[in-house]
Amino acid sequence: MSLLELEDVTISFGGLTAVEGASFAVNPGEVFALVGPNGAGKSTIFNLVSRYCTPSGGDIRFDGKSILGCAPHDIPRLGIARTFQNIELFEHATVLQNLLIGRHTHRRSNAISEILHLPGVRAEERRHRLAAEKVIDFLDLQPYRESLILGLPYGVRKVVELGRALAQEPRLLLLDEPASGLSAEETDDVAFWIEDIRKVMGITVLMVEHDMGLVSSVSDRVLALADGKTLVIGTPQEVQTDPAVIEAYIGLGDNGADE
Amino acid sequence: MRIVFKTSYDADIGLFAHRYQAFWYFLLLAAAVGLPFAIDDFWIGEVALMLIWSIAGMGLMLLVGHAGQPSLGHAAFMAVGAYTNVILQTSLGWPFLVSFPLSGCAAALAGALLALPTARLHGIYLAIATLAVSVLAEDGIVMLAPWTGGVSGIVAPDIKIFGTGFNRYVNAPGFYWLTLGVAVLVALGYRNILRSPLGRSIVAVRDSEISAQAIGVNLAWTKAVSFALSCGVTGLAGALMGHFAGVFNHETFTIFLSITLLMMIVIGGLGSIHGAFLGAIVITFLPLAISIVREFLNESFGVASVMPPGIETAAFGAILIAFILLEPMGIYGRWVKIRTYFELFPFCRRDMFRRQRGYLRTERIR
């Protein structure tokens, strides 16, 4: 059974149809990439899965159950974590605190025990800290543990945001352009991490990415979108050689060569 | 500079970063407990007032400094606390030890009720909504005259705990120790909130609502909890303020009290518990300092008639503008800079505290 399933999902903002009849299924354990030119509807699909917007038609199922009845804050509890295209970290907190906030879905204590700082709260804090430290080790964030996000360069922030999503211990990870604005070496790191996230941690990855090098090196299947419509689903090679995809990216071929 | 060598996660969870810090805080606490033996009753009363301001300030700080929800309505919650406390004692004859916590609960409930309709408001809109609450509270007190005494006011009975009186004039040290105890407990609870998941979710709502939702924080619930906690603590301060004032009416809890509270935490330093105390020191002792200077000028040069009557408000305003222009992080922010300068001496750089450029944020999706 597929982990995430979109069935004929459509959404429009005013007169603009951002996504039209999108249908695809992400299988457990795979890396699934969404590609397409700007405005194709990739991030809108992410926002639909995060429930920031509601589709006008169709259904989104996670684990076989429809998530359209969930509020945005219920989604992480199901096991879906995400990053943002423009980094959305808690800027006045340290890296460690950001990772600990990522553990929110694993909170077991209540407000009153926390105000009194009962022993159970401390034991739970230690467990959260251990989980955060595992993420720090995985992403090599040790030098930045105590630094405020405000003072960190863009590349590190990108990694911290990935770390915050991993601290949630999700089953499905949505990565919105994990390599945008990164150098070639940092992009290589991201590729290795995505491999490890899938193989070692067993987390399914759905990502939006423009860097075709990264997409072809890590993803099993790719969905190409243009103007809200699904063009083709297939392996990275199939998608890259598909005539419709080439047309969407570099314009019309023979029959449109009137210039 | 002291380098803390951490050997366990508890080092980060604990209340104090290292032993020396714990030592200084305990020294401060000991000095505060011993203060009545060093200064006379008038000054003890003023320090008690300062502590009451700090309690109210901590309440507002949680909401404004940590949850990022501006409120101009906290005078109303002080009023809820003050009136609940006195009415429970006089009408129902309940003891202070029962009525005092209940007054905090009543204010917390009122705060949570306010949070329900205002959960979707941001920034200036929330400030205006809470401003309206402040204005309504004044009229509400007058309209509820059968219980509140209306314009003529209400008399706060003497605090009695197990037969011991805590009247501020008869037993000034006792009243001071009482407020000190409440202030220390509130500060401890505040600190516990900040080091727990609840505090982290509150800060998450302040820094980025969109990603707070993405990690599973329920925005409306978290805002309601922050409002309840904040208003509850402010209500406790209001109850103490009622006993401190002895007699109070609708004019005690005007909109100006709300503005003074907000000014206090901005001057002290938003986003730190210390800021509430530092701001309270300024708010309490600035009028005293002005009156001392005025008296001095009067005696030396006979210029009392030249001093305009609104000089205190003007001084507060000038100080507030100066802080916003020169030190947006308040007194506590300045103290952190000075401390860092000496800790790193001579390696402190001038631009160490300059804010880094913020990167592009996700536009609001809804």
Task: List its salient traits.
heterodimer; A: 259 residues; alpha/beta; Rossmann fold; six-stranded mixed β-sheet; four-stranded antiparallel β-sheet; globular; B: 366 residues; mainly alpha; two-stranded antiparallel ribbon; 4 strands
What features would you describe in this structure?
- With 259 residues, chain A is of the alpha/beta class.
- A six-stranded mixed beta sheet of chain A has the order 6-7-8-3-9-10, sandwiched between helices.
- In chain A, α3 (95-101) packs parallel to α6 (154-167) and α5 crosses α6.
- Chain A is built from ten helices and ten strands.
- Chain B has a domain at 18-254.
- A two-stranded antiparallel sheet of chain B has the order 1-4.
- The model of chain B is unreliable at 356-361 (pLDDT under 50).
- At the A-B interface, α2, α3, α4, α5 and α6 of A face α1, α8, α9, α10 and α11 of B.
Chain-wise SSE layout:
The complex is a heterodimer of chains A (259) and B (366).
Chain A (H helix, E strand, L loop, with lengths): L3 E10 L2 E11 L4 E5 L6 H8 L7 E6 L2 E2 L8 H4 L1 E3 L12 H7 L9 H6 L2 H20 L15 H14 L4 E5 L7 H16 L4 E5 L3 H7 L2 E6 L2 E6 L1 H6 L1 H8 L9
Parallel strand pairs in A: 3-8, 3-9, 6-7, 7-8
Antiparallel strand pairs in A: 1-2, 1-4, 4-5, 9-10
Helix pairs in contact in A: 3-6, 5-6
Chain B lengths: L9 H4 L5 H16 L6 H26 L7 H17 L5 H23 L4 H21 L1 H4 L5 E2 L4 E2 L2 E2 L6 H23 L2 H11 L1 H6 L4 H27 L1 E2 L6 H14 L4 H29 L9 H16 L3 H15 L22
Antiparallel strand pairs in B: 1-4, 2-3
